[in-house]
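pasting for ref
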Amino acid sequence: MASKRVAKSAVDWASFAQRVPPSQTEIFRAFKAKSESFVSRIHQFPEELPKIDWAMYKSKIAMPGIVDTFEKAYQSVSVPYPKDKANTKAKVDAEQKDAAAVSAKEIAKAREEIATAQAFVSKLQSLPPLEEFTQQMVADYFPEQARNPWEKPSIWPHTKYNQIGGTDSHEIK
């Protein structure tokens, strides 16, 4: 009876498990066990209300009409399916669409950053070996990072806090 209600689980646990990071596998297992316990509790009850043999009760109970009253009351019982009065499903669907749009933007931004990083890596791979590098090559390949003594003179060791006007965290003021 109960197996007719849910022919297949709505959750694809195999693909779900592939998406779970290794650091959260124990949490995932606990979540899956809890979900399966809920499903098993639902399946332990019959799909429909049990059939009652009203004729047997009419023959055993001497008071006339009481079994008919109970039968009518039992047949009129209907448990309504809960309704979404606060329209929560629509709100969740709207949030899901918004989250999908934000995710798409973040994915596009991440792909741009990946492309930039790959371009930088390809430039680094085209450089000569570090042993053959000179200061002139640094200035040619990385002009934004090279020292420029004509436009921005600096004092050895050429770090930011050792320069005039630089900020030194150990400086006494």
